[in-house]
Structures are given as structure tokens and as C-alpha cells.
């Protein structure tokens, strides 16, 4: 469990603040994460790993020469927002472009993708390298999660940028490293969020979860726990079976602890892993054993192998000097200068009509009603999500609605009309909640707000805009076991009935998702476990629809 915190809700921010204070000579905090204290004297590509917090030293622990120029840091196990990514990128950019790198999780893909679009619109070249090293999570490599192999990809890209490669070349070597990287892991016990009284998942006595995820997801299946030598043999066999076609015999190897496995235990396992890899005809190049990508206090371990060619080996062995990882000696750039503060302009709202101002007040009250409902359901939503996910859905939804209400109140006090109030709420929901649900709800509310504008609310048109934006951004369809399974029936019933009838249709549809097998999102690798449990996104959407329905009913009395 996590023993030290002040407010569990701000644990990630507090940890980042402490890290930046400790390493104030080399890093500095910016909105959304941290960057190097100084920028290079010549333009270089900014390598920016990112993702949710709870994985230290990933991601901000590897900021420094030879590795990352900054890191985008979300809430615990939750994707950072697009706004966070843009903020860090603008602070780290020195004129040669930026490249985001992150694991293959829906929220990260959406948020970093949106950030890339925004940066390009501002004239900053931006690219993405998605890590897909987890061989247990899917048959097709493009659908696999990114876990400890993140580190190898970050290291190669950081060295390439330090050498002076341009953006296209840094992206090329990053993707080549990812294509050559394979990881398998096992969990012996789950991790526990700060303030929580139980872990996100448990493993039966005498067993281990094979194929863990680093967001607190349980293993894909429970198998009997074995001696270290047998686990080593299983890991090596599974990884070598995935050796890329045409790969050589020189490999970078990471034996990674997930949070609670002691170094001495890792050394025991390493003795067998290293022997088996050498017996298979491979040469180990600067292997690493320790904690590189953790999952809070999860008791687990993973093995990562990257097959090297001459270029990848040069970049893997290049010097790096960061708070959490140091290799060789690296010269300081004597021409470095302080990084300037980068902040976004405060929002400005168009003048609103008196009628729109009155409607804006009703929108704000409706959001407050949703906030009350989500706060009451936080634990329930988290428990549903923990069955086949990481258990953060309830907390993420509460963070999102809290931020949305705060932003809506500020917009209302600045004279905003109904559409601008709703759009401001959506922007802040996406910025503060992070993750898949955060970006979807944020983008959907903004789309609804843009349709409303300064006019009277057309509920059907607003919901249509919300649905179209959510479905186009997330790519989900009915039957995928996502919030779309409740959204589509809600939308269809609203077109011919009342809001209360539409809310009832959403609730019925959310319950039916218990029978579905997920085809998207974090629950997909644990598809069998999710059968019998409704989708948390569908449940929370139905809950919100019901809260709005009850608010509307109270308002007509």
C-alpha cells in the first residue's frame, strides 16, 4: 500500500512537486509535467515521454542529457490531457520539433494525437512514437500495450536527438527500436492507490498473474507461482518465440521490478535469465536490472528484450545523465540558457444575450447536479472498472466533473453564454481528468457547446454533436463495450421522446453491456474477465443522463 500522502487526490501533483524541488538544478516544473532546467544552445529535437503517474522513474525521472527533454505527467494511471502535452512541448521546444512517446493506451493515443494537431497548427513540428512491446496483450503487434519497453525506446530516441538527428530520423530510430522490443511480465500482488484500503486486484494464494499491465491491470490469467528458475525459463521462452525476423544475436535486456519486488529477488531471477539468454546464442549488451517502469507498489516483474543492430546498439550504449538513470559521462552544453515560461492566454468569451445568460445558469446548475451524482458513485464506478481495468474510472470522472464545474463557474462569472459555459467545462474536464474518458467527455461537451452557441439549448442537436464527436474521436461502435453502447440508445430515444425516457434507455443499455466482450480500451486484453460486468463508461454515461433528468424534473416543479 501507499503509506505517505497528504490528499490522495493530489498525490501525483505532490510527488512531481517534490521531485522538481529535489532536482531543481536540472529540472523545472511546468504545467502538465516537467522539462530540463535549461534549453540547448542549438536547436535539437525535444524527446518527450509521457503518460500517467505512478510509474517512477518513468516518466519524469529520465529527464536529462542523453535521454528526455521533458515529460508529460498525468494523474495516477491516467493519460495526461492534450493541454498538458502542449504545455510541456512548448516549454521544451528549442526549434527542431518535438516527439511524444508513450504506451499504446487509448487515452494516451487520443490526447497526444490532439496535442500534436494543436502544436502543428501553432507552427511547431510534432510527431508521435507509440510503444507496443507487451507480447501478452494481443496477437497483432499494433494492438499491444506499451509497458517496460517504453524505457528502451525513450533511451534510443534521446541519444539520437543528442547526436543531432533531425525529427524524422529520431522518429525513425524510435519506431525501429519499438519494432525490435518484446516484453513479458507477471504480478504476484496488486497495487493500491493512495488513500485506498484495498488493492486494485488480487492474485490467488500460490499463484501469479501472467501478462500484467503497468496501470494496475491484473494479469491475463492466473497460473501457479513457480521457483525463480522456472519463471526465468518461461519468460525467456516466450520472449525468444517473438524474435523479429532477420534479427541478430546482440540484445539489450531489462529485468524490471514493478514496485515491491526487492533488488535481491531480481538478482536471483537475473542469474537464470542471463544464463538462458546466453545459452540461446545471444550476447547481452549493457543489461539493466532494477526499477525502470513501475506500477506504484505492485509486486511484479517483467523481462524486456530489444534486438540490436549497429545503429540501435550505438544509441542504447550512448551516455545519459538523469536523476534516475545514469550511464557514462556526458558533457554539459556551455551555451545553455534558461527556459522561458510558457502560458496560455486566459479565455475570452463573446458577449452573450440575456436569454443565453439565463440558460448558462441552468447549464451550470445541471453540471453541479452531475457532480453530486458522480461523487456519490465514485467507489462503485472504480470497482466496476477494476474488474478488467485499472480501477481509476470513478476517480477520473470525479476529477473531470470537479474541473468542469469550476471552469463553468469561472466562465459564467466572466459573462459567458450557455454555449461558452459548456465548452469551457469540456475543455477543463479534458485537461484535468485525462485518460480516455476525460478526452471523450471534454471533446463531446465542447462540441455540444459549439452547437448551442449564444442561442437557446436544442437538446437533440447538442446530444447529436456530443455523440458525433465522441464516436469519431474514440472510433468505437455499438457492441464494442464502451460508453457508446449507452450513448447511441440515449441519442435515438431522445430524438423521439423525453430526456427521462432517453435516460432510461441509456440505463437499460448500460446493464446489457455486461454480456458483451470488449473490443476496445484497456479491458480488451482481459476480455473474458469483463463478461458479466457492465462497462464503466456506459454506466457513468447513464448515471449522468439520469442526474440531468432528475435536475430537469426538479426544475419544472
TrEMBL record:
<feature type="domain" description="DhaK">
    <location>
        <begin position="7"/>
        <end position="325"/>
    </location>
</feature>
<feature type="domain" description="DhaL">
    <location>
        <begin position="361"/>
        <end position="550"/>
    </location>
</feature>
<dbReference type="GO" id="GO:0004371">
    <property type="term" value="F:glycerone kinase activity"/>
</dbReference>
<dbReference type="Pfam" id="PF02734">
    <property type="entry name" value="Dak2"/>
</dbReference>
<keyword id="KW-0808">Transferase</keyword>
<protein>
    <submittedName>
        <fullName>Dihydroxyacetone kinase</fullName>
    </submittedName>
</protein>
<dbReference type="GO" id="GO:0019563">
    <property type="term" value="P:glycerol catabolic process"/>
</dbReference>
<keyword id="KW-0547">Nucleotide-binding</keyword>
<dbReference type="InterPro" id="IPR036117">
    <property type="entry name" value="DhaL_dom_sf"/>
</dbReference>
<keyword id="KW-0418">Kinase</keyword>
<dbReference type="GO" id="GO:0005829">
    <property type="term" value="C:cytosol"/>
</dbReference>
<dbReference type="InterPro" id="IPR004006">
    <property type="entry name" value="DhaK_dom"/>
</dbReference>
<keyword id="KW-0067">ATP-binding</keyword>
<dbReference type="Pfam" id="PF02733">
    <property type="entry name" value="Dak1"/>
</dbReference>
<dbReference type="InterPro" id="IPR050861">
    <property type="entry name" value="Dihydroxyacetone_Kinase"/>
</dbReference>
<dbReference type="GO" id="GO:0005524">
    <property type="term" value="F:ATP binding"/>
</dbReference>
<dbReference type="InterPro" id="IPR004007">
    <property type="entry name" value="DhaL_dom"/>
</dbReference>
Amino acid at each position: 500500500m501507499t503509506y505517505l500522502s497528504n490528499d490522495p487526490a493530489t498525490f501525483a501533483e505532490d510527488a512531481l512537486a517534490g521531485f522538481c524541488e529535489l532536482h531543481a538544478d536540472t529540472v523545472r516544473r511546468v504545467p502538465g509535467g516537467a522539462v530540463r532546467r535549461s534549453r540547448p544552445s542549438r536547436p535539437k529535437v525535444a524527446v518527450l515521454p509521457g503518460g500517467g503517474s505512478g510509474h517512477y522513474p518513468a516518466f519524469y525521472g529520465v529527464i536529462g542529457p542523453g535521454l528526455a527533454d521533458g515529460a508529460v505527467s498525468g494523474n495516477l494511471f491516467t493519460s495526461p490531457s492534450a493541454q498538458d502535452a502542449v504545455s510541456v512541448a512548448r516549454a521544451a521546444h528549442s526549434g527542431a520539433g518535438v516527439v511524444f512517446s508513450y504506451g499504446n493506451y487509448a487515452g494516451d493515443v487520443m490526447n497526444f494525437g490532439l496535442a500534436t494537431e494543436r502544436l502543428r497548427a501553432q507552427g511547431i513540428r510534432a510527431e508521435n512514437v507509440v510503444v507496443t512491446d507487451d507480447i501478452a496483450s494481443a496477437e497483432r503487434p499494433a494492438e499491444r500495450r506499451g509497458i517496460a519497453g517504453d524505457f528502451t525506446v525513450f533511451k534510443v530516441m534521446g541519444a539520437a536527438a543528442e547526436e543531432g538527428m533531425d525529427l524524422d530520423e529520431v522518429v525513425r530510430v524510435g519506431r525501429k527500436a519499438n519494432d525490435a522490443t518484446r516484453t513479458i511480465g507477471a504480478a504476484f500482488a496488486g497495487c493500491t492507490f493512495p488513500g485506498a484500503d484495498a488493492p486494485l486486484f488480487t492474485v490467488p494464494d500460490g499463484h501469479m498473474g501472467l501478462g500484467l499491465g503497468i496501470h494496475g491491470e491484473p494479469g491475463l490469467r492466473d497460473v501457479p507461482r513457480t521457483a525463480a528458475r522456472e519463471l526465468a525459463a518461461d519468460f525467456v521462452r516466450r520472449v525468444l518465440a517473438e524474435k523479429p525476423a532477420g534479427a541478430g544475436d546482440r540484445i539489450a535486456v531489462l529485468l524490471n521490478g514493478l514496485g515491491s519486488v526487492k533488488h535481491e529477488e531480481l538478482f536471483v531471477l537475473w542469474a537464470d535469465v542471463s544464463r538462458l539468454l546466453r545459452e540461446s546464442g545471444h550476447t547481452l549488451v549493457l543489461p539493466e536490472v532494477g526499477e525502470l517502469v513501475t506500477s506504484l507498489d505492485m509486486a511484479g516483474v517483467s523481462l524486456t528484450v530489444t534486438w540490436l543492430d549497429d545503429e540501435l546498439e550505438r544509441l542504447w550504449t550512448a551516455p545519459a545523465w538523469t536523476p534516475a538513470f545514469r550511464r557514462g559521462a556526458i558533457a554539459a552544453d556551455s551555451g545553455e540558457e534558461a527556459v522561458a515560461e510558457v502560458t496560455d492566454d486566459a479565455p475570452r468569451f463573446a458577449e452573450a444575450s440575456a436569454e443565453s445568460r439565463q440558460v448558462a445558469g441552468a447549464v451550470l446548475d445541471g453540471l453541479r447536479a452531475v457532480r453530486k451524482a458522480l461523487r456519490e458513485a465514485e467507489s462503485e464506478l472504480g470497482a466496476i472498472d477494476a474488474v478488467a481495468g485499472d480501477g481509476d474510472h470513478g476517480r477520473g470522472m470525479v476529477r473531470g466533473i470537479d474541473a468542469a464545474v469550476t471552469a463553468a463557474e469561472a466562465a459564467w462569472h466572466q459573462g459567458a453564454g450557455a454555449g461558452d459555459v459548456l465548452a469551457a467545462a469540456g475543455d477543463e474536464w479534458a485537461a484535468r481528468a485525462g485518460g480516455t474518458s476525460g478526452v471523450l467527455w471534454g471533446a463531446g461537451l465542447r462540441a455540444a457547446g459549439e452547437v448551442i452557441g449564444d442561442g437557446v439549448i436544442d437538446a437533440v442537436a447538442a446530444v447529436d454533436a456530443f455523440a458525433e464527436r465522441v464516436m469519431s474521436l474514440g472510433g468505437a461502435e455499438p457492441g464494442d463495450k464502451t460508453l457508446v453502447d449507452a450513448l447511441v440508445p440515449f441519442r435515438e430515444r431522445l430524438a423521439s421522446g423525453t430526456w427521462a425516457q432517453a435516460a432510461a434507455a441509456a440505463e437499460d443499455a448500460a446493464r446489457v453491456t455486461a454480456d458483451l466482450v470488449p473490443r476496445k480500451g484497456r479491458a480488451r486484453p482481459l476480455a473474458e474477465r469483463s463478461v458479466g460486468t457492465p462497462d464503466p463508461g456506459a454506466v457513468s454515461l447513464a448515471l449522468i443522463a439520469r442526474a440531468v433528468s432528475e435536475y430537469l424534473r426538479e426544475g419544472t416543479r
